[in-house]
User: Which sequence fits this backbone?
């Protein structure tokens, strides 16, 4: 059916708002719970924001989140591609521990993950603290039941089930329409970034009239390829700087268009009075794609690599009167840490084993040690380059081991001395290398018990 994005109003999106005195999951100490808004960009490079040092683009609205809150300089996606990172964010677990070591795709011979039925997603827990939960935008954790958003704890789903869109205006993937309102196929018109924002504005408007707090996971497709910004945005970039390549111009326009839409959301929160009680988290699912001329700051590699450029991502947290503006943290944090952090903020007790840690002390500006744990990164992929195997990285404090295909040997780096991973260290008789390697081996053994294919 044809559906204009502005006509979504008639579907009556249900949500909640602002503050409500509720008891924690343990039934003690009533508290005022904040709204939670996670904004996840797709393939946004570490250096492709003006607040991250970009000189050829302008992102004032995203910059505002970073500048009026806390910016993390050692924040990591759990993988170098989409599905695994999203699985980690929503479960608090390493992605291969919940059955998503690689990208979930339409065709079975190209799909490398299946979200395990035992996985507990964040929205299911938040309902216990009286939250209304929604996802708007890209899901990418399953294309059919039972692995659909409404089956995994989200009250509302307005978005795209698949991986990438082949066209930002047709919203198709392999000529299949994956756009949904809950379980209903819809065909909204317009650029996907605008549509997702329109749906978000409608959600926020309705939530401002309710009593319950909301958890909204807003996952844009931008700036994932195809590089297809609205024409007027591309014209604006070219007029401003004619010396930029065609491909870079398109990427900049796609990012600036995304930033403008995020500005619309911040404005709506301000007008409704919700901004005062909303924790806003902005980050990306992995590093920028080098073939799209993305910039990952000074770091080596990009999307698909487990070098820093593929997994270190921009991250900013804004929470008015709760997070002190202008803070910068060097603490090592991952997407999977958002799960326990949000649970602690909302008073929800986690019921299952998770791998992430709460970084709430860091958000409050308190001293917190987060690098005293081994952390692992991985991806499984097909094709001749990967052969259906996994490749890995692991970090402990300043030490990192890394490979970028299953066929190459592990490299060993000290990130404090060599943050750009230019000079691999000698591995033999290095205790730090052996410890990391052994811990990674143990992780691989544990994850081996988790199926990642549909039975």
Assistant:
């Amino acid at each position: 059916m044809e559906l204009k994005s502005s006509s979504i109003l008639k579907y009556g999106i249900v949500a909640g708002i602002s503050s409500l005195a509720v008891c924690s999951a343990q039934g003690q100490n009533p508290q005022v719970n904040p709204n939670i808004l996670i904004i996840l960009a797709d393939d946004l490079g570490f250096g492709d924001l003006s607040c991250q040092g970009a000189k050829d683009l302008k992102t004032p609205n995203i910059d505002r989140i970073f500048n009026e809150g806390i910016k993390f300089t050692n924040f990591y996606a759990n993988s170098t591609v989409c599905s695994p990172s999203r699985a980690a964010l929503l479960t608090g677990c390493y992605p291969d521990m919940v059955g998503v070591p690689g990208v979930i795709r339409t065709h079975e011979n190209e799909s490398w993950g299946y979200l395990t039925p035992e996985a507990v997603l964040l929205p299911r827990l938040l309902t216990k603290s009286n939250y209304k939960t929604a996802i708007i935008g890209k899901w990418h954790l399953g294309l059919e039941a039972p692995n659909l958003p409404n089956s995994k704890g989200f009250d509302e789903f307005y978005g795209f089930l698949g991986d990438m869109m082949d066209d930002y205006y047709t919203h198709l993937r392999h000529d299949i329409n994956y756009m949904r309102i809950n379980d209903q196929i819809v065909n909204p018109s317009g650029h996907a970034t605008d549509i997702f924002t329109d749906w978000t504005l409608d959600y926020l408007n309705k939530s401002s009239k309710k009593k319950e707090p909301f958890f909204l996971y807003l996952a844009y497709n931008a700036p994932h390829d195809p590089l297809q910004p609205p024409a007027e945005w591309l014209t604006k970039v070219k007029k401003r700087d004619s010396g930029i390549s065609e491909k870079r111009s398109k990427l900049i326009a796609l990012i600036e268009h995304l930033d403008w839409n995020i500005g619309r959301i911040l404005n709506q929160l301000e007008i409704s009075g919700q901004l005062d009680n909303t924790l806003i988290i902005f980050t990306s699912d992995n590093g920028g794609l080098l073939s799209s001329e993305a910039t990952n700051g000074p770091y080596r590699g990009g999307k698909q690599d487990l070098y820093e450029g593929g997994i270190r991502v921009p991250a900013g947290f804004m929470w008015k009167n709760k997070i002190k503006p202008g803070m910068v943290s060097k603490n090592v944090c991952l997407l999977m840490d958002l799960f326990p952090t949000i649970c602690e903020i909302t008073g929800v007790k986690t019921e299952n084993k998770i791998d992430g840690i709460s970084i709430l002390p860091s958000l409050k500006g308190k001293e917190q040690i987060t690098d005293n744990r081994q952390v692992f990164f991985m991806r499984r992929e097909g094709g001749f380059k990967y052969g259906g195997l996994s490749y890995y990285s692991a970090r402990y404090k300043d030490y990192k081991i890394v490979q970028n295909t299953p066929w190459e040997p592990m490299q060993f780096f000290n990130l404090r001395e060599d943050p750009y991973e230019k000079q691999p260290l000698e591995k033999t008789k290095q205790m730090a290398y052996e410890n990391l390697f052994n811990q990674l081996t143990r992780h691989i053994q544990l994850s081996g018990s988790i199926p990642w294919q549909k039975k």
